[in-house]
Design a protein that fits this description.
Keywords: Hydrolase. The chain has helices at 23-32, 39-51, 57-68, 74-94, 101-106, 122-131, 148-159, 173-182, 196-199, and strands spanning 10-13, 113-121, 140-144, 166-170, 185-189, 204-205. By secondary structure, the protein is α/β, with parallel strands linked by helices.
Length: 212
């Protein structure tokens, strides 16, 4: 990793847990979908979500329905996806900023490009960042169903930026794997809830206060 984020031409951003402190919002949303299942299954769902934060709900909800022993037809999955969206959007908007990140984003130099790569559905993340008045700060926004690896490769090709000049800021093993597979640098935004934080030995930050 370069000595400063200002030395990168392109910064990829995860959203939940990196820009907004909204990981708990998503956790509560998943658990609220299954109020009557066994506590052991709820615990399994919670741990899976926290350890695989970068995976989209389109993959998680069918899996959790299977674990809960509930019907998982396309109709059922859509019903749960709709419930999830209703629960999360305004709560994510209202959740706290990761300390220092709002100021960091708004000081973006003209020479640098910012791109969101998130497991949140694309239409939803576009709505959220517009409500937060930060949509104009991002040169591209990728959400589900576009996978992070694909989004990264598409951006590198579109902007003709070298991998060595690009970095992903993420808070999960999924994010790290996306950076690894595409050959770009990675900065881990630590999360006490993520088991990966105990394993990761690379560059990490707790917030953006020292980076403003």
């Amino acid at each position: 990793m370069k000595s400063s984020l200002s030395n990168y031409k392109l910064i990829f951003w995860d959203f939940d847990g990196v820009i907004k402190d909204s990981v708990n919002v998503k956790t509560e949303a998943y658990l609220s979908l299954f109020p009557n299942i066994a506590k052991e299954t709820l615990h399994r769902i919670r741990n899976h979500h926290l350890n695989y934060g970068g995976i989209s709900r389109f993959e998680k909800i069918p899996l959790y329905l299977e674990w809960a022993g509930l019907p998982s037809s396309s109709f059922d999955i859509k019903k749960y996806l709709d419930q999830f969206e209703i629960f999360v959007v305004q709560r994510v908007i209202a959740s706290p900023w990761i300390p220092g990140v709002e100021e960091f984003l708004k000081r973006k130099p003209l020479s640098q490009k910012f791109v969101i790569v998130t497991g949140t559905p694309e239409n939803e993340i576009l709505e959220i960042i517009k409500e937060l008045n930060i949509d104009m700060l991002f040169d591209r926004v990728y959400g589900a169903p576009t996978e992070k690896e694909k989004a990264i490769n598409l951006t590198l090709e579109e902007f003709h930026i070298d991998k060595e000049s690009s970095i992903l800021i993420g808070d999960s093993k999924t994010d790290w794997l996306a950076a690894q597979s595409t050959g770009i640098d990675f900065l881990y935004k630590e999360s006490e809830l993520d088991e990966f934080s105990k394993q990761f030995k690379g560059n990490k930050i707790r917030d953006f206060l020292g980076l403003i």
